[in-house]
Amino acid sequence: MKHQALIITAGILLATLTGFVAFEAFRYKQEKYHDKLKQIIQKVNSSNSTWKAGENTKWINSDIAGVKAHMGVKLGQESGIKLETVSAQANGLPEEFDARVQWGDKCSSLWEVRDQSTCGSCWAFGAAESLSDRHCIHLGQDIRLSTQNLLTCCAACGDGCDGGWPEAAMDYYVNTGLVTGDLYGNNSWCQAYTFAPCAHHVTSDIYPPCTGELPTPPCINSCDSNSTHTIPYSKDIHRGSKAYGIAKDEKAIMAEIYKNGPIEVALTVYEDFLTYKTGVYQHVTGDELGGHAVKMVGWGVENGTPYWTIVNSWNESWGDKGTFKILRGKNECGIESSCVTALPAY
Ligand SMILES: *[C@@H]1O[C@H](CO)[C@@H](O)[C@H](O)[C@H]1NC(C)=O
Ligand SMILES: *[C@@H]1O[C@H](CO)[C@@H](O)[C@H](O)[C@H]1NC(C)=O
Ligand SMILES: *[C@@H]1O[C@H](CO)[C@@H](O)[C@H](O)[C@H]1NC(C)=O
Ligand SMILES: *[C@@H]1O[C@H](CO)[C@@H](O)[C@H](O)[C@H]1NC(C)=O
Ligand SMILES: *[C@@H]1O[C@H](CO)[C@@H](O)[C@H](O)[C@H]1NC(C)=O
């Protein structure tokens, strides 16, 4: 009896110790990553680059896995979908252009910043966001297309929260179509995003920290049970008439946005990008993290540096109110090499 009690006590002690060590190891990793980002901020700010770094509260509770879970573009793996490449006429383009200013009074989606949470769904965000804008710009209806619907139902797009391909998303919009939907918790449309924003503040008790990676939810062919949208799923599908890529050419990209509205683009993310605050981003320091898709809305010149204006899906608390500028004309981080879009049909 005495022997057994001893073994049980030892077992309990060991389990407690193991749990404690695992927890401390996780905390240590988090603190170390936060420290690394702090060093990167110092390095960028003292580098006399065209941009300034700072603490984006989004990453305070994050570890490297949580950060990497945000990179959802499959680089180096082919989707098998080849879109026609278009090179639009590029005469008379202005020095500066912003689709939000051009069409934003009629089309409120242009001003929206979404939040992908810790799911590698950026490929679906860049597509749903830019296609919502284009739907309004071309057809005059200020709607929101559902990231959730694209993320969960497009099998040919890749692996859901584990990453996907922007060109496949555009193809899906033309061949299958998307229902309406907006941010987490918004039941005004058919299918809302089901992942809550992850913690952007150290003290947040409401949201979980940005760690790990969430599993892709199932594809459901009906509107959310709590949706107040009066149009049923089958009648709520919006489709495109043509999906296409844009030539890897600064002027062709500008001409496309100027004529038809925002597009989806992808870039390679390095660690310094996480700390972006203001100015024109160009890679300064840090390791490569993965591929990321975003929405390009315009261009301009800041202190002599040409830039693209881009809306991210990392919440409005990240970067410059959720947006960033990146060096234009140099294919910085591959930003000009995989631009895709589509035109809406209905
Ligand atoms: C980096 O530069 C920005 C803008 O000048 C400033 O707000 C921030 O405090 C700086 N941070 C560090 C760690 O140098
Ligand atoms: C900082 O950069 C600007 C423009 O890029 C340049 O004119 C200036 O000489 C640089 N200053 C230092 C100290 O390197
Ligand atoms: C951004 O995060 C905050 C919490 O920090 C949240 O209240 C807000 O809804 C998020 N924005 C979006 C677009 O999800
Ligand atoms: C849902 O989003 C739409 C814009 O898409 C907005 O007009 C509406 O007020 C939002 N509703 C709620 C309940 O947040
Ligand atoms: C609304 O319904 C969806 C599924 O239909 C669910 O995921 C979500 O949590 C619900 N939201 C609220 C606020 O009840």
Automatic annotation (TrEMBL):
The record, for InterPro entries, names: Papain-like_cys_pep_sf (IPR038765), Pept_cys_AS (IPR000169), Pept_his_AS (IPR025660), Peptidase_C1A (IPR013128), Peptidase_C1A_C (IPR000668), Propeptide_C1A (IPR012599)
Pfam families in alphabetical order: Peptidase_C1, Propeptide_C1
**Which PROSITE patterns does this entry report, sorted A to Z?**
THIOL_PROTEASE_CYS, THIOL_PROTEASE_HIS
GO terms for molecular function, please?
Answer: cysteine-type endopeptidase activity
Give the GO biological process terms.
proteolysis
Keywords assigned by UniProt? Disulfide bond, Hydrolase, Protease, Signal, Thiol protease, Zymogen
Q: Which CDD domains does the protein's record reference?
A: Peptidase_C1A_CathepsinB (cd02620)
Q: Which residues form the Peptidase C1A papain C-terminal domain?
A: 93-343
What's the family? Belongs to the peptidase C1 family.
What's this protein's name?
Answer: Papain family cysteine protease
